[in-house]
Amino acid sequence: xxxxxxxxxxxxxxxxxxxxxxxxxxxxxxxxxxxxxxxxxxxxxxxxxxxxxxxxxxxxxxxxxxxxxxxxxxxxxxxxxxxxxxxxxxxxxxxxxxxxxxxxxxxxxxxxxxxxxxxxxxxxxxxxxxxxxxxxxxxxxxxxxxxxxxxxxxxxxxxxxxxxxxxxxxxxxxxxxxxxxxxxxxxxxxxxxxxxxxxxxxxxxxxxxxxxxxxxxxxxxxxxxxxxxxxxxx
Length: 234
Fold this sequence. Notes:
Elements: H1 6-13, H2 23-32, E1 41-48, E2 60-64, E3 75-78, H3 83-89, E4 94-96, H4 98-105, E5 113-116, H5 121-124, H6 128-131, H7 149-158, E6 160-164, E7 170-177, H8 182-198, E8 209-216, E9 222-223, H9 228-232
Parallel strand pairs: 3-4, 3-5
Antiparallel strand pairs: 1-7, 1-8, 2-6, 8-9
Helix pairs in contact: 2-8
């Protein structure tokens, strides 16, 4: 059994057993927990009522968090020619083509997101086995394969997050830092919840959001009250 810290146990004392919270209540409760020695990430965790083994029930999308994630995102952009300059001016930390393909093949992974021009996809497809399992492979569905690489880079830098269900039907996405104001965390979390709701597959039946919790890195998870409206309202 995992040993819990004194701070975690202290935070747990303020929780009422079996209580569910509105999203705003969960945010304000987390803000009151004893602080850690670092700025904790705050994450939303969804358990969806989908059949993840069926392709037509995959839940995937992006959300542009109004207050960003609070995390510096290192972006690699696969482009050629004059577009390299455009990518760097847009904020890409790295921009290029063959040289970065070779670096990744050699084990280099010092980046958090990739944007690629469609013309580059054939060349970087060989990196699928490396980037795919890490969730870094560019995809048109996630907006990371784009002709307008400038726009895609700026959106990622500004706080756009990507989500996709795992093999158990779960989604786990960062929605900010504990140092954010209550209002900023709430607005970010609300935006993310709405994005997951909008991504509901048409073939899904029954309860879609079976369980939603909000938690900081070293805090207990707070169960969010069921029902779409109660989740996104204060």
